[in-house]
User: Fold these one by one.
Assistant:
Number 1:
Amino acid sequence: MPGGLASLAMDESDEGVVGSRAPRALIVTLYGLYGRERGGWMSIADLVALMSDLGVDQQAVRSSIFRLKKRGLLEAEKVGRAAGYRLSPDAEAILAEGDTRIFQRTRAAVGDGWLLVVFSVPEAERDKRHTLRTTLTRLGLGTVGPGTWVAPAHLEPAVVGALERVGLRGFADLFVGAHRGAESASETVAAWWDLRAMEKLYAEWLDRFAPVRARWRSGEGDTGDAQAFVDWVGIVTAWRRLPYLDPGLPLESLPPDWTGVRAEDLVMELRELLAPLARRHVDRVVAP
């Protein structure tokens, strides 16, 4: 199952804007969608060919691969005479964790309870405090107060796994339980998360990709396998950050007609429509 892409290559140049087509973000998408089903390894020649279809030149591909390697996400490896790169174990773990998060969305109910993460990092270890905050932010946790974060209870395994990967599990205490505040669930969730910004990003995503669905439904323009590949990789690259901003918040606590639901429905429809055609294109391009 493809997915798990959001936590990789997540600097502002790659993930800061819905619809980003930065080369690093696209390479991560290619590994998430097609690299893992080939054992986690892709040759440089195949990456260059696929990225060329996406409008990225060879020099940009090699530069992006170098940066991903430097960050410990890719490892150089030769298979036979072909030079290529394999996903690192950490990258594999992150991709696997994100599969359900991105393509099998879990919507919590208010009665399911909440996960509270309380952390305390000594002043002398400020860098760890920053890493911990960054990790929790990327997982989509909301903030209750200084050193206190919150998420739907179903995120507990993902949070524990992420903290263990960065070596900070010992700095955080986790609690699962019901909210007993004076305010309603919708009021507290609006205080913990920036729902307005979240909804704006969903709306931007819909504005960009609803026309793609219309084009494929009407059969106007190019609807071949290569175009399906270009469209689908762009869709996933733009989508993969959004489920990490909205960690499956309960619909009862969100504004009516939550835009995220329509966005989720659209990405699933586009997946059914485009993913098989895109994979067929990749199978033709990539060496067996």
Note: The first strand starts at residue 41 and ends at 43.
Number 2:
Amino acid sequence: MSPGFPDEAMIGEAAQWLALLQSGQASAEELRAFEQWQAGDPLRAQVVRQMSLGLGGRVQGLSSERLLQALNTPRSSRRQFVHGSLAVAGVALAGLWASRWQGEGGDILQTGTGERRDLLLPDGSRLVLDARSQVAVRFDTWQRLLQLNRGQLLVDVRHDPTRPLLVATAEGRIRALGTRFQVEQQAKGTQLTMLHSRVEVTTLGGQRAEVGEGQQIRFEAQRLFALESVRGDATAWIEGRLEVRDRSLGEVIEQLRRYRPGIIRVSSAAARLRLSGIYPLDDSERSLQLLAKSLPIRISRHSDYWVSIDVP
């Protein structure tokens, strides 16, 4: 579930959809995909309405009938509309950052599509955020808390014997003193990868586990999965690489989505394919080409913003 305000990724996606709708080149399939995108989060429809008003009300409604009318009467080229949409997005983002959540000594840090941030926290700990990630930082006299709302982070914790550093996700908490690890908030769980020392994981249901250096674990609110050894360079994403060892295509595409504007659809059959390799995160088009060469898949480009992957 999205927070009470849209992040940069959502605003960017809305701008791209509006550009496609106003270009007059959207297909019926793309129109259905747009409606599905909006249905995934009520906040998306609000963003579309606000940006439409900011662009002179050129997309007045959200129904199929009104969207088709907009498609049949384009008023600007795709390029012009993209520029206009992104200009409105920039204004919206400025307002959002000016009014971002502040509470309990906390702040919101986030990244957009294709953006990584390397930050120094108030206690001297290092925080690296992957693309399309968001974390609430709450440091005070009693606690050091990072609430990972989405995406992935790496934290190099500065030792503080009186204030353990906690990373909270939708499924539980990770407690550390002085250590280095990364956490990914996935669609149906949390993935923890230990890089140095040890941490303790506690799920929302109360299950506990210690995770040591070179180990990784996935957990849900009521379930801890088995410990596994870290495979490959788990931190390669910091340098813009995705190193894959015997992972599913669905997992790989989930990572690439953070670095590519628009939509990437993967069929269930294609998502189950296993692969190994190294892929450039900062050049998603090249990564798709490499995937097409190494796997029995068909990649269809319906527009600049919508790619579908299936088996032949």
Note: The first strand starts at residue 106 and ends at 110.
